[in-house]
Amino acid sequence: MNNTKKIIKYCVLGLAIFFFIITLLGYTNLGNLSITESSENIFVNIENEKIRISQKGNGKDILLIHGSPGSIEDWNSIVDALAKTYRVTTFDRAGHGFSSSNEYTYHIKDNAILVERLIEQLGLKDPLIVGHSYGGSTAAYMAVHSDLKELKYIILDSPLYKSRSRGIYKLISTPVIGKGIALASSYTIANSQIRDGVTPIFKSIKEEKIQELVKERQRMWSQPKVIYTKSMESINYQDDLNLISHKYKNIVSDITIITAKDSINTLRKDCEKFHSEVLNSELIILDNTGHYIQFDKSNDLIEVIHRKMSNQFRP
Fold it and tell me: Domains (ranges, CATH) in the chain?
């Protein structure tokens, strides 16, 4: 009996020490990627965050905002084609990719402010804003609150009214120990979770390419800081949407919403409702695409952007 108690005691003590160490390590940079600054990977300081950006091409400005999780690489399928005509700016949102998250509070408002500062600091002139998923929610926030109401927006399959947070995100967002749990998950379940979550999203590209995209996302998204950022954004998402969704009817910006015919695996219902409330908007529903429209339907998206930039696509 005494031996059993000792075993239990040592097990509990061992677990306590393990979680203590993991919690401490969670506040370090362990497991996060680093990159050398180059002509294609530039870092700018905005709102006390070190933000990775990339700019290609010359001409009218386009600014692309990725989802959650995500990074500059989410736009690889369209950037080079657009850069032949326009100046295309992409960036890693705070806590994603290679950007920092020093003072990021994980709200849509933070991202809208970051975008405004980015436009100002980089000298972007009336850029077309293209936002995918969380990036589209950020665009919607800007259309409601920003002083830049004259900008044009394209929203790609984004949560605009409803968002659900998985149990694992609630666990990782736990105060104090959350970052430690994010670190532990980055070395255990992250890659399999990313593979299982991402693979079904792509609809019309070859299996070989899907596997390449999955591996790229496993590399970028399995970073502890990204796991923690995704979790925090997820638990805040619904409250953030509640704060702006009742104001959509006041939007005066020129907005194009693009979603998919597949209403089960995409955000089509939210996109349709948004279109019904925003008078100056156009809804485009594409066949044979999933959530990642920029990969499944890159040519269609590029065409919409060209028309939007040439003022031929106003509803």
Answer: 31-309 (3.40.50.1820)
